[in-house]
Amino acid sequence: MSPMHFTLNSTFALSIMGFSMHRTHLVSALLCIEGMMLILFTTITMFFSAINLPTMSPAPIMLLAFSACEASTGLALLVATSRTHGNDHLKNLNLLQC
Q1: Could you report the per-residue pLDDT of 18-71, keeping only the tens digit for each?
Q2: pTM of the predicted model over 0.70
């Protein structure tokens, strides 16, 4: 395994571990998800540039656009949650309650 592949895999694994272990605040969960999306963008960009496949060149840009939409939706949920509940603790949220 090359050092670049090891770095990308370990960064993605650290983002998943951070998302699964430190879920106290909504901001930290959103940052871990954003980190995973950026690592996926980097990996897909490197893969498609290495194999020189021109038909799949818009795929990383579409992934980056979806990542930006996910980030804006997450921040909107963060603002709405902090206004209604007063904080962004995930354990205070009940998803089944209206």
Answers
A1: 888 877 888 888 888 899 999 999 998 888 888 888 788 888 889 989 999 999
A2: yes
Residue type, 60: P
CATH of the domain at 60: 1.10.287.3510
Q: What is the dihedral of CA 37, 18, 12, 58, to 10 degrees?
A: 0
Please give the torsion angle defined by the CA atoms of residues 5, 72, 23 and 15, in that order, rounded to the nearest 10 degrees. 0
Residue 96 lies in a domain: no
Q: What is the largest CA-CA distance in the chain?
A: 50
Distance from C-alpha of 78 to C-alpha of 87, rounded to nearest angstrom: 9
